[in-house]
Amino acid sequence: MTDPVFDAWVYSLAADAVGVSHALVVLFVVGVQLAVLAGWVSGWRWTRNVVLRRTHLGAIAFITVIDGIGFLCPLTTWEYELRQRAGEGAYAGGFIQHWLERLLYYSWPGWVFTMVYLGFAAVVVVTYFYYPPRKRA
Questions:
Q1: Is the pTM of this model over 0.85?
Q2: Residue 92 carries which DSSP code?
Q3: What does the pLDDT look like over 17-26, one tens digit per residue?
Q4: Is residue 37 in a domain?
Q5: What domain count does the chain have?
């Protein structure tokens, strides 16, 4: 027989882990782009790593497509489900939207985030072609 309090704790802990993972994905996408731009200026060779750059491009492409077709990020959906199973309330909207609203105390419509994702994706694509990744010689 299962203990509902323990089950709720496990689901809550799992939801927190998904939330932290989600934050790390956001940090990866934004952080790598900042590092690539800095590497372009500074001549850091590691910022031209093919695997890093293709993974980064794929991540922002996935985020942009998912948002563009009106779906929530799978990590957001997973976290929602875990929070509901834990008996907690799930936040409304997407992960980034939720946390920016909490940090900035301002609510923006969903289309604003779509435009931000598209703009950021454009910067990533332009950077990818003007400062392309290179395989090691």
A1: no
A2: S
A3: 888 898 899 8
A4: yes
A5: 1
